[in-house]
Prior knowledge:
- By secondary structure, this protein is mostly helical.
- It has one domain: BFD-like [2Fe-2S]-binding domain (Arc Repressor Mutant, subunit A, Orthogonal Bundle), CATH 1.10.10.
- It is 63% helix and 7% strand.
- It has a two-stranded antiparallel sheet with strand order 1-2.
- The N and C termini lie far apart (39 Å).
- Belongs to the Bfd family.
Amino acid sequence: MYVCICNAVTDRAIREAAESGVRSFAEVRRRTGCSDCCGNCEDLASQIFHDAVARTSTLDLPLIAAAA
Ligand code: FES
């Protein structure tokens, strides 16, 4: 679904950013243009991003443990 109507940014694009290693919402904004116009999407976009980072980080734990 479109999260940012101004710049046609989808929830999928935000999740893909998190999965590719982006760890700040400012970087999501820079890469996608999300929330850089009216800002109405920022709360939802930020929530989607932080949820995706938390899920991605959880998925990384076994890899970190295996490397230790
Ligand atoms: S809806 Fe995202 S900046 Fe306007």
